Each structure stands twice: as structure tokens, then as C-alpha cells.
Amino acid sequence: MKKGLTTICHRFFSNLANPTRLAALEQLMKQPMSVNELAQTLGQEQSMISHNLKPLLSCNFVHIENHGRKHVYSVNRETLDPIFRAIENHAEKFCPKGGKCLQGEKQNG
């Protein structure tokens, strides 16, 4: 890693380490949506979704297009597709059936 990349990585992953933001990204990976559509899909308040989209916008994880008065959000596929593929690959290969990384703090069994 380049010198100073630790700070960038921390900011990058901290921005993604939020359940509401991840849920929004997961929905936006399926299709572009407005804040109201995301709020309805996720069962969250519109203000909560807007609040969580701001950091994603500032880091260019999502983009916004204006369709008249409607603002439609879409994901930055160049960045997020490889990340989500890497996570899925890791989970399939290294976290099968009860792997520690998929469990909460309490382990079953």
C-alpha cells in the first residue's frame, strides 16, 4: 500500500460500515431510485435515507441525476461491483456454514 493509504482506506470503509447505507446500496445495485422510493423499500424515514446518502454522494459511491423535480440515485458500478463481488467470493469460499466472519459476537454451538 502507498504511504498514507491507511487513512483513505479507513474513510472508505467507514463510509460503507453503516447498515442503512449498505441497505441503500444493495437496493440501488438492483435499480436506480429516488429517496422516497428507497425509503419505502427499506421501511425508513425519508430524512434518514437522505442523511445516509450524503456521505455516499461525497465519496462518489452513488451518483444523482435530476429528472425534473425528481432526484434519482444510482451506484458507481466501477467502484462497487468489484467490491461486492469480492465480498460475495470471500463469504462463499471462507465463511461457509457457520464461518466466524458471518456470525455475531455470540457463537452458536
In words, what does this structure look like?
With 109 residues, this protein is an alpha+beta fold. It has a single domain, classed as Orthogonal Bundle (Arc Repressor Mutant, subunit A), CATH 1.10.10.10. The protein is 58% helix and 13% strand. It has helices spanning 5-16, 19-30, 35-42, 46-58, 77-94, and strands spanning 33-34, 62-67, 70-75. A hairpin with a 2-residue loop joins strand 2 and strand 3 (70-75). Helix 3 (35-42) packs across helix 4 (46-58). The longest helix has 18 residues, at 77-94. The chain is globular, with a radius of gyration of 16 Å.
Blueprint of the fold:
Elements: H1 5-16, H2 19-30, E1 33-34, H3 35-42, H4 46-58, E2 62-67, E3 70-75, H5 77-94
Antiparallel strand pairs: 1-3, 2-3
Short description:
This protein is of the alpha+beta class.
Task: Supply database-style keywords.
109 residues; alpha+beta; Arc Repressor Mutant, subunit A; 3-stranded antiparallel sheet; 5 helices; 3 strands; 58% helix
Mean pLDDT: 88
Terminal residue distance? 39 Å
Order of helices and strands: HHEHHEEH
**Share of β-strand residues:** 5-15%
- The total number of structural domains is 1
- State the helical fraction: 55-70%
* Oligomeric category: single chain
Rg on CA atoms, Å: 16 Å
Sheet with most strands:
3 strands, antiparallel
Structural class: alpha+beta
Q: What do we call the CATH homologous superfamily?
A: Winged helix-like DNA-binding domain superfamily/Winged helix DNA-binding domain
Instruction: Count all strands and give the number.
Output: 3
- Name of the top-level CATH class: Mainly Alpha
Question: pLDDT below 50 for ≥5 consecutive residues: which ranges?
Answer: 105-109
**Tally of helical runs:** 5
Main β-sheet, spatial strand arrangement:
1-3-2
Identify the CATH architecture: Orthogonal Bundle
The fold-level CATH name is: Arc Repressor Mutant, subunit A
Overall form: globular
